[in-house]
Design a protein that fits this description.
single chain; alpha/beta; six-stranded mixed sheet; 8 helices; 28% strand
C-alpha cells in the first residue's frame, strides 16, 4: 500500500503520522486521511469501518457517527480500529478522550452510543489529574448513588479527588445501561481513563484496556484498506 498521512484535528491543532510506518510527522508527504475534519455523519446502526469521503480541498475524511442528536467526535476511528481487529466481538467500547463515548458494538456494526463531556468539564474547572485515591472513590460511590447531587458535590469540593470522583460517578450512573452486565473495552490514556477503568472494575464489570493512538491509527488503516488505498 502506498504511503499516506493519518491526521486528527483537535481545535486548531492537527496531529499527523506517516503511514503505514505510524511515525509522527509535522509535514504532509502524501494523501491525508483526516479524523474530526468533517464528513457526513453516519446514522446508526452502521458498519464500524466506513467508506471514506473525499475532502473539499483534497484528501479524505473519516465520517463521524450520529445518534440521538450527538456526534461521535473522533471516537469513530478508535471504534473502527478495535472492531476491525475483533470482527466477531459483541459488547461495549468506552472511548475516553476529551469527551467520553460509550458505544454498543455487535457483528461489526455500531448499534448506539452516548457521549459525555466529563473530561471537558474537568478541564474547564482546571481540575488537577493528581488526586487522593480514597477521596476519589468516596465521591464516585456517592455520586453514583445520587447523581442528582452532582452540582452540590462540585460546589463544596476542595480537592481534585472529590471533583473527579463526582464527575466520573455521575457519568457511570448515566451510562449504566451500557456497562451493566456487559464486557467493556476501554480505549484511552491518562489518569482519567485509569480512574474509569478502576471504577468499572469495582462495579464487577469485566474491563480491558486498549491504547488510544493504536486504535486511532488502526481504524484509519482499516478504512484505507477497505477502499484499496488512497491517492
Amino acid at each position: 500500500m502506498a504511503n499516506w498521512i493519518a491526521a486528527e484535528k483537535s481545535g486548531r491543532m492537527v496531529r499527523m503520522w506517516e503511514m503505514p510506518a505510524r511515525q509522527p510527522t509535522d509535514g504532509a508527504g502524501g494523501p491525508i486521511v483526516m479524523v474530526r475534519g468533517g464528513g457526513t455523519p453516519r446514522t446508526l446502526p452502521c458498519k464500524a469501518v466506513p467508506e471514506l469521503e473525499p475532502g473539499a480541498g483534497g484528501g479524505w475524511l473519516f465520517p463521524p457517527l450520529a445518534w440521538d442528536g450527538q456526534v461521535s467526535d473522533g471516537a469513530e476511528a478508535r471504534i473502527a480500529g478495535f472492531v476491525d481487529a475483533n470482527p466477531n466481538w459483541d459488547g461495549v467500547l468506552c472511548v475516553a478522550g476529551e469527551a467520553t463515548v460509550w458505544a454498543h458494538v455487535s457483528a461489526g456494526e455500531v448499534i448506539s452510543f452516548q457521549r459525555f463531556v466529563t473530561g471537558q468539564l474537568a478541564a474547564a474547572m482546571q481540575v488537577d489529574e493528581t488526586w487522593d485515591e480514597a477521596a476519589m472513590r468516596r465521591a464516585l460511590e456517592d455520586a453514583m448513588a445520587r447523581p442528582e447531587r452532582l452540582a452540590a458535590y462540585i460546589a463544596r469540593a476542595g480537592d481534585a479527588g472529590t471533583l473527579w470522583g463526582a464527575l466520573l460517578g455521575a457519568e457511570l450512573a448515566a451510562a449504566r445501561v451500557y456497562w451493566l452486565g456487559q464486557q467493556v473495552v476501554l480505549i484511552g490514556d491518562g489518569r482519567a481513563a485509569e480512574a474509569l477503568q478502576g471504577a468499572l472494575a469495582v462495579q464487577g464489570v469485566p474491563v480491558s484496556r486498549e491504547d488510544d493512538t493504536e486504535m486511532l491509527l488502526a481504524g484509519l488503516e482499516a478504512s484505507v484498506r477497505a477502499r484499496g488505498g488512497v491517492s
